Amino acid sequence: MSSPLSPDSGGPGRALARFIGGPLDGREDAIPVARAVAGSTVTHTYLHGGPKIETHYQLHRTAEGGWEYRLKPG
């Protein structure tokens, strides 16, 4: 597994969260600190060349104090 990211590594007033699993695996997103709430869910919608596919991720705090969006079971 990749190393966790510090909560302030996304820039001033932002936290960096890494996506774990699914089509966004390994990508990072700098989210506003005010939006960094454990349990928050984001949806990724894939529309290219076929049916719409939605993937849901839930935000989790790591033991080291960073953030991860983990793939929610379908």
What is the compact description of this entry?
It is built from no helices and five strands. The chain is mostly beta strands and 74 residues long.
Beta-strand content estimate? 35-45%
In terms of quaternary structure, the protein is single chain
Bulk shape: elongated
Low-confidence stretches: 1-6
Order of helices and strands: EEEEE
Average pLDDT over all residues: 86
Strand count, sense and closure of the main sheet? 5 strands, mixed
Number of strand segments: 5
Helix content: under 10%
Question: What structural class should be given to the helix and strand makeup?
Answer: mainly beta
Gyration radius from CA atoms, angstroms: 13 Å
The largest sheet has its strands arranged as 2-1-5-4-3
**Count of helical segments?**
0
Distance between the termini: 22 Å
